[in-house]
Design a protein that fits this description.
This protein has helices spanning 129-132, 159-162, 180-184, and strands at residues 6-10, 13-15, 21-22, 27-31, 34-44, 47-51, 54-66, 76-80, 83-86, 93-96, 104-108, 111-112, 134-138, 155-156. By secondary structure, it is mainly β. The chain has a single domain, classed as Single-stranded right-handed beta-helix, Pectin lyase-like (Pectate Lyase C-like), CATH 2.160.20. A seven-stranded parallel beta sheet has the order 1-4-6-8-11-13-14, with no helix packed on it. Strands 2, 3, 5, 7, 9, 10 and 12 form a seven-stranded parallel beta sheet that branches. The protein is globular.
Length: 192
């Protein structure tokens, strides 16, 4: 099966329980999207930037299952200026777990409501994942953002570390041949 190398989405609405959004291959930019689910509902091994998205957790589970296979891969998910909400319950969902041993996920400037478990992240029942998974947060806020209570193997990034994840360059690093900048300049119709 052939997968597109790059994808660009604005105002997408996805609602399922498990495996809602399969970010399997290439590079994706999603903005102003609504994504709802329960278990590993954003998963795969692509390089993806989700900006200004609303992530809604329907029931107990895990938001992400990123499957980076080695520390040399540049894949990972960045949630930038997003909102994570739930159904009114407290501490029933995790930000993610590593589907691959080197899973990489960053939540930055994101509001988290009480549905997010205070420990934040899960090792998928494999303590060896704690040495290799890269789970980060940066300047998140809200009752579900509890840096002092997070698992010890996840980290709050400092400014210099976070910089690489806070711009479109994370998914579009080649300034000589940009793909995202070209698509952002295209006028997207409100209806087809």
């Amino acid at each position: 099966m052939m997968y597109p190398m790059y994808s660009f989405s604005l105002s997408l609405k996805l609602v399922f329980t498990q495996d809602t959004l399969y970010l399997h291959y290439g590079k994706q930019y999603l903005r102003d999207c609504y994504i709802e689910g329960s278990v590993d509902f954003i998963f795969g091994n692509s390089t993806a930037l989700l900006e200004h998205c609303h992530i809604h957790c329907k029931s107990a589970g895990y938001i992400t299952a990123q499957s980076r296979k080695s520390s040399q891969e540049t894949t990972g998910y960045v949630f930038l200026r997003c909102v994570v909400t739930g159904n009114g319950g407290e501490q029933y969902t995790y930000l993610g777990r590593p589907w691959g041993p080197f899973g990489r996920v960053v939540f930055a400037y994101t509001y988290m409501d009480p549905c997010v478990n205070h420990v934040g992240w899960n090792n998928w029942g494999k303590t060896e994942n704690e040495r290799s998974a890269c789970f980060y947060e940066y300047k998140c806020f809200g009752p579900g953002s509890c840096p002092s209570k997070r698992v010890t193997w996840a980290r709050e990034l400092i400014c210099d570390e976070a910089e690489q994840f806070l711009a479109h360059g994370f998914i579009d690093p080649d300034s000589q041949r940009p793909w995202l900048a070209q698509r952002m300049a295209i006028r997207i119709p409100y209806s087809a």
